[in-house]
Records
---
Amino acid sequence: MSDTTLATRAPRKRSKRARPRPDFWAWLGICIVIIGLFFAAFGSFMAPFDVGQIVPGATQFMPPNAETLLGTDVLGRDVLSRLLYGAQFTVGVALAATILGFLLGMAVGFSAAEVGGRYDDFITWLIDVFLSFPPILLALIVIASLSSDLWVLIATIAVIHSSRVARIGRAVAMNIAALEFVEVARARGENLISILVREIWPSTIRPLAVEFGLRMTYSILFLSSLSFLGLGIQPPDADWGSMVKDNLNGLQTGAYLSVLAPAFAIAILTVGVNLIVDWLGSQSGRSISEELTK
Amino acid sequence: MLKLIAKRLFVGLVTLLAISVIVFAGTEILPGDVAQAVLGQAATPETLAALRATLGLNEPAYVRYFIWLGKFLTGDLGVALTNGMPLDRIVGQRLINTIYLALYAAVVALPLALGLGLLSAAWPESTFDRTVSSVTVFFISIPDFVIALILVLIFAVELGWFPAINPRPRWSDFFPTLGALVLPMLTLVLSVLAHIIRMTRAAVLDVLKQAYIEMALLKGVSKKRIIIKHAIPNALGPIVNVIALNLGYLISGVVIVEVVFSYPGLGRLMVDSVVFRDVPQIQVVAMVFCAFYVALNILADVGAIMANPRLRYAK
């Protein structure tokens, strides 16, 4: 490779960007996410056994057979059924938390950019305080005081997201709030909410789309980790993280599938989301590495 | 520059104070109070009231906050509810164990990550770069506990090279301890490696796009010299930043790793105290974690200021 590549790389990439079309990897990511959403919505109806039901005649950690396609878990429950059932928590809670976190973060970040002054200073400081809090610690404290209720989990993850979304949202909205059409809207006498929703929001969708994907990945990983610690989704319900935790003993007896199936389900889903994020990132010219370090 | 660093330190302290409010408030809204927790469900209303009075629980919340903060600052951490042991001793020992593990991971991860990041930036879009990039996307995408499990499955269960459960580190057996801690160390390394590699690559590439690099190229300066002389010094700010942030992540990322490997560190202590709802212990552990996190954030900013002269003068 010659030295000139240093100088010529950027323009070549730009011309490629002109026609945004998902490549193979992006399509793979899209397919994975659609399948994940499908199982989240219908998985519990498709499951051959009930989530807490012990398969009749089954013992713990049975190998896969015709009745239980992925074998049984530590209590003799069907791994496949629990996997299908758990999708609604792993995917559903993550999605709900991400959306909620985005709404909150955008409301705070956009309004800080639009209103400015003392309010902006205060919000910026508040965001800094929340960002200097290790997320897992915030979650542990909240769960310690309010229990692992489903809505507590969703709200906690949403709040963790919102401070990061608010910071990026504020930065993006700052540039837009200075544009003429927003100036015109202000002169026209539009109120704050109308300016935020009708003028600023539409222009931020593209830059924030990448962020949404990253936040979604983070939600899935975070919820799974909490469940793995035994502080997330509580029995009799199960998500993929708590399934890994429940069946840890299976590693010693050689029943790897009961642990690896949910573990790989999480991994495949997050890789899928990240493939889309990478593609979106290359479209908007912001690399995933820039996003990841915010 | 000193003034700027002092200002950053002050902001850090204020942040820590704000965090202490959140920690205190978060643990104070527990249903039931400390008196109930100490005496259990069978306590009579009279003994409860008596203990509340001695513990000062009848004071308004903000008064209790300042009492708590005062005790905390003077080093009086109190005792754990679950076993009555003094918290400073428990937390001190656990903190040393956690730092031991985190430093071990950092010493392995940093040179590796910086090296791979630089090589990726030196040959962007090459096979090497693409390989590193896809592997890092993979490791960013899977949860730490899954990485840990796969490592345990391969190296502890199948190959039997390393133990899956780890004893407390002993200073007398320094090297055997390092050997026993390979799997938790490797898990932590893999969880931060990707971020540092990607950030290093992005920072160096960003510098390489600048006009003065093109100038140097046109002058006929060799690529090696451009990267070492021009790119690295200018990319140092963001790199130092991401290193400090990732060390902060190591300190809090140990929570999962310590639980998986039953390692007696601060992270596991935190999870245990949440499970047992040991409020004083939660408060102390949370504050120690946050102090480290804030300190590393300050370090990140100071590092960036030192590396980039343009930041030394406040606007």
Note: Chain B has a mean pLDDT of 80.
---
Amino acid sequence: MIFFDKVSKIYSPTSAALKNVTVRILPKEFVSVVGSSGAGKSTLLKLLIAEERPTEGRIFLDGDEVSALSYRELPRVRRRIGSIFQDFKLLRDKTAYENIAFAMEAAGRDPKEIEEDVPQVLDLVGLSDKAYHFPHELSGGEKQRVAIARAFVNQPDVITADEPTGNLDPVNTWEIIELLTKINELGTTVILATHNKEIVDWLSRRVITIDKGELIRDEQKGTYIL
Amino acid sequence: MLGTQIKRMCKTSWLSLIRNGWLATATVLVMTLVLSMIGGLLLLSVVANTILADLKGKIDISVYFFPATEEQGIMAVKKSIEGLREVREVGYVSQVQALDEFRERHKDDAVILSSIDELDANPLEATLNIRANTPEDLAFIAGYLKDKNYPIVDKINYFENQRVIDRLSSVLASIKSVGLVMVLALAFVAILVAFNAIRLAIFTAREEIGIMRLVGASSWYIRGPFLLSGMLHGMFAAVLTSLMFYGVIWIVSPKVAFLLPQMDLFGYFQSSFIQFLGVLLAAGVLLGGTSSFIAIRRYLKV
């Protein structure tokens, strides 16, 4: 379970990215976080992976207080969270296969495991035939699927996706969303930050709406309302 | 498991060196300069200590007696010196012996031999060679002889040797301190250069670092390769310097042997090559490690 307990993040005295946000996310949930640009969606995700520390409040991932972990303990928690971004963040000089293997290596996995798992996860995202393509040889949607495979390969409990379809055309957008729901059905919590109304309405899952840093709506089968 | 991680880190640091090849080369060369200074100082003190020890072993006091001095008088002086506690040994070389030794030394030189024969009297002086227990005692013995002011004594040649030794010691001491200052100054430059090399390597690898953090790589897994490549710079420099010294000493050694017959520089270097390499490796790793440690602390946030 993820628990944001009265969390505030203040970058400068005049602007607060998050104000006193309290949210509970249960295992295997699919949660969309919506809000206009700059509302604080990304900040929420960054706080969860401890990329940022909250100014006030506490953040828990199951038994761990993420917001209070030392640098030594952080990697253990980060391995339980897979992250996906709008700009994919793939390594240009590595093939799709190598990009995924790189993440497994960094997480300290065995060479044998890597050999077994990478083809499997490439199959899951439907890119078995493009394993040895470099990012510049892939379409935007394919790149994002490699990124999802990379986030998923270390078997995280949670996947955070920050505007994963922001750079994609409608067809690719739907492929990515379908993939995320598939991963969610396999038992992984998914937190999707987006401002795509169509997606949110189609998903008809839990929606958390943030406006100017404040949580203004939290509905179990929500739609995109601003 | 740990082995796999270490292997991966070694691979990463090696790739980082290759990726930043020119900068790595420049860094290694600057470090080579520092290590050469250190190596040069090391060798210099070995050579200097050999020379000084040799000179100190050789210093004795030679007392020269005027030609045609009665042997009796000389023996009396010898006896009185032998009574001193500071004296270890007194050797007597008579005028005849001195001449024989002289002839022996110049037996291939017909000109010198014939000119000696031309002379009526033996021009060489009888000597007493006095060895002391310690070099410090020599001053006392010389003072004693001077006080006695024997009329048959022509000259006492202790003071000249001492002056040479003193001068040599002070020259060596100042070379060493100037060298040390230069080593420190160069080491500072080397650390700066290596620091920048690592900083640039971190910058080049920022995307990889970001992803490693994201997927939960441990901080030593991320930082290790950069620390390692810093140390690798130093190791390459140490090996390069040692090989350079090997070559240079091989060429220079015969010339040194000509000046200092008791010094087999190349032989000495060969026999202590491992220690030499070890000292340079330690210095190189320290230099490279320090600079990459500083760079990592400043620029690699985990």
Note: Chain A has one domain: 2-219.
